[in-house]
Amino acid sequence: MDQEIVWQYDEFKQIGKDYSSQSEVEVYDSSHATFRDLEAESLRVLDLLELKESDALIEFGSGSGTFALMASQRCRHVHAVDVSLAMLDLSREKTSHAGVSNIEYHHAGFLTYEHRELPVQAVATTLALHHLPDFWKGVALKRVHNMLSPNGKLYINDVILEETNATENIKALIEHQAAVGGDFMREDAEAHFREEFSTYDWVMEGLLKRSGFTIVSKSIEGGVLGTYLCRRSA
Ligand SMILES: C[S@@+](CC[C@H](N)C(=O)[O-])C[C@H]1O[C@@H](n2cnc3c(N)ncnc32)[C@H](O)[C@@H]1O
């Protein structure tokens, strides 16, 4: 995006959960372990993406770095992009501890990352796109489209809502998070819906199609947790 555009959304300003805060980052892996298995999840995504050794991948919103580390074992190069310096520091520490050298970290986001290399074969993003309001999700997806090689794959997993029973499904998710992770996870889930920008599946699908993607598969767990595998269609 043109750096001159002063009305561009400031993606470095954290909304909802403050992932720039050291204390949030320190508890990230343990709090998320109460409701997800990050390593098993990463393996499932990597199997779905069917990466070849010669492939390169960009991850947006790389967070504490688990997926990037695992992806680095399956492909030539990983670009891990995140707006939080604290998350990037933690990821870099894990990477150096693991002796991995094919991950490049970028302090940037969906709207500001400039991909200066050849187009990549895959882009993945989990629980990050909802940080952007819908108009800016569209801008982000068009930028992602331009970073992918023809037929390149896009994996998105995020809080994405089916319209039917949306309110009931949100309440059920909040109760589930509270049951597995106590008050911390209840407040985390409540803040998500109150302050962040999760959207409907039909909005997401319109944005994906208009950004030049074909949806290969879709699932919405519990009416609230969406997963899309897409291909760059043009
Ligand atoms: C809920 S965490 C998800 C981290 C990781 N992908 C996971 O699945 O555990 C959201 C991450 O997205 C990052 N983020 C927020 N807005 C972003 C943006 N506009 N572009 C890229 N990353 C962003 C946050 O700093 C944070 O690290």
TrEMBL record:
Key words, A-Z: Methyltransferase, Transferase
Gene3D superfamilies: Vaccinia Virus protein VP39
Methyltransferase in keyword set: yes
Domain called Methyltransferase: residue spans: 59-152
GO molecular function: demethylrebeccamycin--D-glucose O-methyltransferase activity
E.C. no: 2.1.1.164
Biological processes per GO annotation: methylation
Protein's UniProt name: Demethylrebeccamycin-D-glucose O-methyltransferase
Keyword DNA damage: no
Origin: domain of life: Bacteria
Coiled coil: none
InterPro entries (alphabetical): Methyltransf_25, SAM-dependent_MTases_sf
Enzyme class: transferase
A Pfam family matched in the record: Methyltransf_25
